[in-house]
Amino acid sequence: MGFGYLFIGYLVVYLLSSTAGVVGLSSVAVCLGTLLLYVGFAKLCRFHNAFVYGRWFSVLLLVASIGVAFSDISAMLLWDIPFLGELYDSIVGWTSFFLSICLQLAILYGVRMLSAELELSKITSAAMRNMLFVSLYAVLYIVGKLPIAAQFLQFLMLATVLLNLACVFLNLLLLLNCTKSICASGDEEIAPKKYRWEWLNRLGDTYEKNQQRMNEQARADGEEWMRRRQEKKRKNKRK
C-alpha cells in the first residue's frame, strides 16, 4: 500500500541521517529518505485523501533539504558563494525543522484518519498519542533556542533529545504495525510477508506480543474492576 516506503523513508530521514552526518552526508540522506516518503504518500493517496498533506510536505522538505545539501557541499569544497552564510543557514535550517515536524504530523494524521475509517482503534489511539509527543518535542526544541531558557539549557537539551528518540521509535513501531495490520481491499486473506531483514521481523513480533500482553492485562483489570463493583453493590443492598 505504501506504508513500507513510509517506514524506510522515515527511518532514513529521522534516524539514519544522523549516522550519515558523521561524514557530512546528513542532508543527502534526508533527500533520499524524503523521496521514499513521497513515493509512500503517493501510493497511500489512492486509498485515503488524508495522505495528500504528507505528499506536499515531503516535496517542500525535499526542496529545503536540497538547500541544506547545497550549503554543506559548498562548505566542504570551500566554494565562495556570496549569499551563503549564517543567515542562509539559519533560514534554511528553521524551515527544514518546521517542515520536518509538519511532515511527521502529516504521517500521523493520515494514519489516524485511515485507521479510524477501518475501525482499528489501537492504531488510531497510537497515532493520536504520537501526534501529542511530536508536538511537545517541537515546543521543547523551540523553547530551548530562546535566550530566556539559558539557565535551563542542559535540562531542556536532555529532555528534547530523549523525547525526540521516543517519537522516532514510537513512529517507527506505528508504521511497522500499519504494514502488518492495514492492507488493500482483497488482500485480507494473504498471510503477512516476512521482511528481508530479520531484525525487523523480531521487532514486529516483539511489538505484537507486548500489545497482546497489554490488552490481556487491561481486559483482566477491567474484569476485576467490574467484579469489585458488583460485590460492592451487593453489600450495599444487604445493608
List keywords for this structure.
mainly alpha, 7 helices, elongated
Compact summary:
This protein has 239 residues and is mainly alpha-helical.
How would you describe what is shown here?
The protein is an all-alpha fold and 239 residues long. Helices cover 79% and strands 0% of the residues. Helix 2 packs antiparallel against helix 3. The longest helix has 41 residues, at 198-238. The chain is elongated and about 90 Å long. The relative contact order is 0.09.
Low-confidence stretches: none
The quaternary state of the protein chains shown equals single chain
Q: Helical residue percent?
A: over 70%
Radius of gyration: 22 Å
Number of domains: 2
Shape: elongated
Question: How much is the average pLDDT?
Answer: 79
Based on DSSP secondary structure assignment, what is the total number of beta strands? Answer: 0
What percent strand? under 5%
Structural classification: mainly alpha
End-to-end C-alpha gap? 61 Å
